[in-house]
Amino acid sequence: MQTEFTLKFDAEYKKLNDKQREAVDTIYGPVLVVAGPGTGKTQILALRIANLLKSDAQISPQNILCLTYTEEGKKNMRDRLFKLIGAETAQYISVHTYHSFCNEVIQQNLSLFDKETLDAASELEKIQYIKSILLKLDNKNILYNAKNPNANANYLLRMFSKMKQENWTAEFLLEKTNQQIHFLENDESSLSTRGVTKGQLKQAVVKEIESYKKSSDAIKLFDAYKQLMLENHRYDFDDMINWVIDMFQHNPDILASYYEKYQYLLVDEFQDTNGSQMKIIDLLTEYDVSPNVFVVGDDDQSIFRFQGASVENMKDFQHKYLPHGLIEICLKINYRSTQGILDHAKNLIEKAGERLVNHNPALDKNLISYHTSTNHEDFQPRILSFHNPRYEKIYIAKRIQTLINQGVKPKEIAVLFYDNKSCIDMGSYLHLLNIPYYTKKNYNLFDDILAKQLLQILKYIACERTNAYSGDSLLFEILHYHFFQIPAIEIAKAAILSNDKSNENRKVKYSFRRYLQENISIQHPTLFIENGRDAFQYAVTTLEQLINESHNLSLIQLMDTIIQKCHIIQHILNSTNKFEELETLTIFFDFIKEEAHRNPTMDVNELTNLLDIMQENDIELPRFKLYGNEEAVRLFTVHASKGREFEYVFVASAVKLQWEGRKTPANMIKIPENVFETAKSNKDNDELRRMMYVALTRAKKELLVSYYNIDLQEKEMEKSLFLYEIFGENFEPEKPIISNQMLFEFETLIPQVDEKIKMEVIEKSFIEKQLQHFELNVTALNHYLACPLHFYFNNIVRIPSGLHENMSFGSAIHKALEKLFATMKLNEQVFPPLEEFQQYFLNFMRRNSEKFSPSGFERKVNYGLDILKNIYETNIDTWHKVVNIEFNAKASLDGIPLKGFIDKVEYYENEITLVDYKTGDYKSDYTKKKLLSMEDDKEDIGGDYWRQAMFYKILLDNDKNNKYKATCAKYEFLEPDKKSKTLPKPHIFHFPKEHIDQVKTQIKDTWQKIQQHEFYEGCGKEKCEWCNFAKSIRK
């Protein structure tokens, strides 16, 4: 050994405490080091490697393999080794992540893998394979969805990823899932013990069983997915580990060669390993009952279960090697934090249900602060309470400013949040004080405004290529994009004139695109920009050229042409966010290039179809942006802070909604409890508790934990339960005063919660002409009450809208029912047979087949035929035959012209029942909200379906031609219950006087506002589709 190396090692070795030295000195056999936060685990790994090389065992560096959890961990270990033992020796030590190790094994044994022609699959390609699987399902599979065949695409992707991470075969997981279902169905505790359901399965158990059955059907598709990946010469990173596992299991000689090569195995962050990674470790050590395997981890810091990590690995390691000389070492001396911080963190983590100490009472994990015991420094954590999150961020920003002014380095300060968005928000407060900050923004490319606009242009081109003049709604939006520089008022007027032209001759199919083609060159110049007509004309001409040229251009060429002809680069260079937008453009174009490289024959239609599936199913195109540099204040999520430490730490927004109160994402995959023993813990929120523990233990010197009492909408917030566990049941928080001067300093960041967007006012005479023959129907009334801009866009401007598949499908069902009753009336009140009823539906679908994708058309036809069969067989013997179909009515209420269109009216002597057909899920929250009366509606306007019923009653009561009394409205939901497959019972509305009076008032107030042109300002609601649409077209 070189003298320099020996001196460095000896110097570092002397700094170790007794337990650390024991870990470094133990060379042979299995070793489990439980290393709490700040106990120097990375240092002992490096020193142990150095000690192996220094020992009398004459160990070669080539015989050592060190596995780390992340690339950052790999880099840190290499850096330590280079400094400790020198580059000449360190370069021969294998330091790998699990993926890089498996990649090396594959490269060294290419002939056995036959993977030379495989490329990594993109998210888009995975969706292609999932889509093809879903389209082949029959209606017996729970994942089958006739209306949206791709509805479970995200669910399948997550299920398959989980199975690969855990190295589960379909056969294994299916067996475990079926066992869990059998257990739930036969366990006495699953049965209700009271009421009318006594002896039956509890509803919660029924739902759990349904989730497992869905998982079961998904698991059965796993092998088909893997086969599709292979057939298309694709793989993902999880596959690499499983390939190596499979190769080791089927080639014992090769496994033996790696066992002989790597005589010493060291594993960092052992608690974060998932099932497939653990299998690699097991295989590399399986030839020896007492192998030289050294693992370091802390079960209390296992926070990556969502990536497949499991606390269970540490417990299994104990059980496996205890009979074979396992040495367990617990590092207790913490070199990072004060004792006050450690004690408060201990209060929290002791509430966790699943810990190693529960299985080994002799294991003492009570951390002792080195700083407090040697320097008697002990800064107690503080708990702070604020009025709202804005006050909280102001205080934190000002406190950070004070610390920096006192000489604290910015990089020694961190603010930790649960979510990424809060980090970005906090950055704006620091920016106002000119405090540099560093954070990483994870975002979905689909959420970026420029990326959305480019995608909409591609969708418009694809739409017009497939079916000319069908993309009018996209065209209306695209013309508003800033790079075309057309005033919104001119586009609105053009849309109105286009609709007027269409109304002149209803027999001829007309469109916004056709109107612009025919009229743009003779349109009067705009008053708002010089040569405004030229801007409008250029935009229309450019889009027409793009549609025509797209047939002869590759995807990359088409994208390049869009960027050039739409002057997007020039627009970006004049933007205040030019650097971010240039980065977005580069990322988006690179994405197109990558997909075109993978699939050279892919055209714009195929691309946009797959992107639609991803957006509809919340499948993201994940990207990230870095802000600042690492010398600045750190704004991190708790996950991102793992493995780091800071002098000053703020754990912010510790409210229930941000932590344990977060809703479980819809469509979560369900893994049976009998797979993970730790899943049976009766403690809730253990992973979140460990996350909070990690957050607290990042602090070296000062720890501030804070929460707020109301949100920005003045909704009361509950404190996180973890605060009580950390600070005690009766803790008294500090309540810092936020002065008016501080508020004024941050005034520009006051959220405009109720900001109402306004559209530019169109000339009064122009609008008066549009309203001259306007008659109020219930749809227009609903639009206005929801948001005046909804009325403006749909009833004044009448923005073009293409029929979506679901809308066209609903129309086909309605038309079939209309024709069924019309035929019955002509046929002496005898209904035609089922086959004829279904044929009406088929005829409409075929006439409108261009509204559907080829696969969507087939699915909708089959689903529609099933629905109609159910409707027919359920009602054929009970349908009332004295009816009027597609009933039109007009009336006047105090001089207000009203009109309506009722699906069916049933006559009973002097009384009538109004019938309206509804497609869609009658159990959905969307439907339930529409059925609410004004008294039950939180927004105090009532639901659309309720108002529709009252409106029709008012309409018929004021119709001079109507001599019948409407007694009720009946809403018939035409789609069967997903579970029972039976039709829901109709929803009946009666007409109490107070409800009629409420809607009469709404009619009169709305009519007056419309006549006064009060429809240019939005409602201001954060999630309003039309306010957000108005904002998007003005950006």
- Count of extended strands: 22
- In round numbers, the mean pLDDT is 88
Number of helical segments with 4 or more residues: 43
Taken as a percent bin, the fraction of beta residues is 5-15%
Report what the structure shows.
This protein is α/β, with parallel strands linked by helices and about 1050 residues long. Helices cover about 50% and strands about 10% of the residues. A seven-stranded mixed beta sheet has the order 11-17-16-12-15-13-14. A six-stranded parallel beta sheet has the order 3-2-6-7-1-8, sandwiched between helices. The longest helix is centred in the C-terminal third of the chain and has 22 residues, at about 805-825. The model is unreliable at about 520-530 (pLDDT under 50).
Structural features:
1035 residues, alpha/beta
Give a short overview:
By secondary structure, this protein is an alpha/beta fold.
Map the helices and strands.
Blueprint (H helix, E strand, L loop, with lengths): L2 H12 L3 H8 L5 E5 L5 H14 L9 E5 L2 H15 L1 H4 L3 E4 H11 L1 H4 L5 E2 L2 H13 L17 H14 L3 H17 L16 H17 L2 H10 L2 E2 L1 H14 L1 H10 L2 E4 L7 H10 L8 E5 L14 H10 L5 E5 L1 E2 L4 H11 L18 E2 H6 L6 E5 L2 H17 L7 E5 L2 H13 L4 E8 L4 H18 L5 H7 L9 H17 L7 H8 L12 H18 L5 H11 L2 H6 L4 H21 L5 H13 L5 E6 L5 E5 H4 L4 E6 L34 H11 L2 E10 L12 H7 L12 H6 L18 H8 L6 H9 L1 H9 L8 H22 L7 H14 L6 H22 L7 E11 L2 E13 L2 E8 L6 H6 L13 H14 L7 E9 L13 E3 L3 H19 L13 H10 L1
Parallel strand pairs: 1-7, 1-8, 2-3, 2-6, 4-5, 6-7, 9-10, 11-17, 12-15, 12-16, 13-15, 16-17, 20-21
Antiparallel strand pairs: 13-14, 18-19, 19-20, 21-22
Helix pairs in contact: 1-3, 2-3, 3-4, 6-13, 8-12, 10-11, 13-14, 13-15, 17-31, 17-32, 21-22, 21-25, 21-29, 26-28, 35-36, 37-38, 38-39, 41-42
